[in-house]
């Protein structure tokens, strides 16, 4: 979603801009005087356009990298429960196989079908989740 430059900013946006300026100063990209002037302008800024003008000569960097995970929590939960299900089925089959002398059909192989389905859904969810997080880590005035 593109941000309109005339949209008003929040206090959180100001804090994020100040953090990015602090990072630029600590990297030596801004002198102390430039840093102070831009920090004052961040405090006075009212729109995304006002803040964006302060960063035109600075490279885009994440001032405070948000905690990111490659895999959504629900995917980890589903795979944990599915792994438990697979292990229990394999153990039961192993116990049955050791109790009978004749060859016991390896029925846990039918669990491959839902495993493939879960893997396909998980793959799509992980790709979508990664794209959303990458977009979320970019400050609004940089979009």
Automatic annotation (TrEMBL):
Pfam families documented for this protein: DUF1707
Source organism's superkingdom? Bacteria
Which keywords are on file for this protein?
A: Membrane, Transmembrane, Transmembrane helix
- According to the entry, every stretch annotated as the DUF1707 domain falls at 7-59
**Bilayer-crossing regions:** 77-95, 107-126
Name listed for the protein in its UniProt record: DUF1707 domain-containing protein
* Species, as recorded: Actinokineospora bangkokensis
């Amino acid at each position: 979603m593109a941000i309109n430059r005339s949209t008003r900013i929040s206090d959180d946006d100001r804090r994020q801009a100040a953090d990015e300026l602090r990072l630029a100063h600590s990297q030596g990209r801004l002198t102390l005087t430039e840093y102070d002037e831009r920090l004052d302008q961040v405090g006075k800024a009212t729109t995304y356009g006002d803040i964006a003008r302060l960063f035109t000569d600075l490279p885009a960097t994440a001032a405070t990298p948000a905690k990111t995970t490659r895999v959504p929590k629900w995917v980890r939960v589903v795979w944990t429960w599915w792994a438990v299900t697979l292990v229990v089925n394999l153990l039961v089959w192993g116990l049955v196989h050791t109790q009978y002398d004749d060859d016991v059909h390896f029925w846990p192989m039918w669990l491959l079908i839902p495993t493939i389905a879960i893997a396909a859904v998980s793959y799509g969810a992980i790709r979508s989740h990664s794209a959303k997080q990458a977009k979320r880590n970019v400050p609004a005035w940089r979009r």
